[in-house]
From TrEMBL:
<feature type="compositionally biased region" description="Basic and acidic residues">
    <location>
        <begin position="202"/>
        <end position="221"/>
    </location>
</feature>
<dbReference type="Pfam" id="PF10173">
    <property type="entry name" value="Mit_KHE1"/>
</dbReference>
<feature type="region of interest" description="Disordered">
    <location>
        <begin position="200"/>
        <end position="221"/>
    </location>
</feature>
<dbReference type="InterPro" id="IPR018786">
    <property type="entry name" value="Mit_KHE1"/>
</dbReference>
<dbReference type="GO" id="GO:1902600">
    <property type="term" value="P:proton transmembrane transport"/>
</dbReference>
<dbReference type="GO" id="GO:0005743">
    <property type="term" value="C:mitochondrial inner membrane"/>
</dbReference>
<dbReference type="GO" id="GO:0006813">
    <property type="term" value="P:potassium ion transport"/>
</dbReference>
<protein>
    <submittedName>
        <fullName>Uncharacterized protein</fullName>
    </submittedName>
</protein>
Length: 273
């Protein structure tokens, strides 16, 4: 599975790293291997010859499914209810999640190669170094926060004795899951973009790119492809102004529309320091 990534400066030295929307994921049904009950989870986990990493993935998928169902229940609650207010609080908390974490979570274990699109005015090797830096920094940060979140789970679970929804517990549980996924995405991205430079591809011409891509797919010798885009470079230079002011919202929306990006995630990069 190949993922298409977009990399471009959005404000000064602040770069945007994002993945294009994969519409096939929304149409893919939930895997039948994902346990739906505690009994199913225990049955799958206690298999002796199953690797520890696979058991951890089953547990994480089980927790994620439970959180998704609970979130849907909050979202569909009547206006003015306690559940609806908790949903609003959850949206506010989610808006504070850093865009780099969202990007790293989008790099799933199913991805076998990445195509990186960047402005033609940027140096290809600089783009790859920045990607590797994001992956390396993410693996360090999210490993630290993952263990920190795990340590808070017993403390917040003790709040369940109160006659109120245990929001801190579910938030810490979500953050644990989120940091775990970001950590896995960091390690996967680092593995992909750290491939030997001899097997990398840097392409500028569209027709030439398609020819080389088909050849590389036949030989399966490349995990990442760098493709410069003059169109993206022209979009970045639509307005003349101070680079520290960043791109205008109009330009950001136009880039998101052309390259099929999540607008909310891209705007977060503009607001982040």
């Amino acid at each position: 599975m190949r993922a298409k990534l977009l990399v471009f400066p959005i404000r000064g030295r602040n770069w945007c790293f994002t993945r294009t929307i994969d519409h096939s994921l929304s149409a893919t049904p939930v895997s039948s291997q994902s346990p739906s009950t505690l009994r199913d989870l225990w049955t799958n986990v206690k298999v002796a010859d199953k690797p520890l990493n696979a058991k951890a993935e089953l547990f994480v998928d089980f927790i994620a499914n439970k959180m998704n169902k609970a979130w849907i229940g909050l979202e569909t609650a009547p206006d003015g209810s306690v559940k609806k207010k908790i949903h609003g609080l959850g949206l506010w908390l989610l808006s504070r999640v850093k865009p780099s974490e969202i990007f790293l979570k989008s790099i799933s274990k199913e991805i076998t190669s990445v195509e990186v699109i960047y402005p033609s005015s940027l140096n290809a090797e600089l783009v790859r170094r920045r990607l590797r830096h994001v992956a390396m920094r993410g693996s360090i940060i999210h490993r630290k926060y993952f263990y920190g979140s795990v340590s808070l789970i017993p403390l917040t679970s003790a709040l369940s004795i109160l006659p109120l929804p245990n929001v801190p517990f579910f938030w810490v549980l979500f953050r644990t899951y989120s940091h775990w996924r970001a950590l896995q995405g960091s390690e996967k991205l680092l593995q992909l973009v750290s491939n030997s430079s001899k097997t990398s591809k840097t392409r500028t011409d569209k027709k030439e790119a398609e020819d080389k891509e088909s050849k590389s797919q036949n030989h399966n010798d490349s995990h990442w492809v760098l493709r410069s885009s003059k169109e993206l470079d022209n979009l970045l230079h639509l307005e003349d102004g101070d680079e520290h002011e960043g791109l205008s919202k109009f330009t950001i929306l136009k880039i998101c529309k052309i390259y099929d990006l999540n607008t909310t995630d891209v705007i977060k990069y503009d607001k982040s320091s």
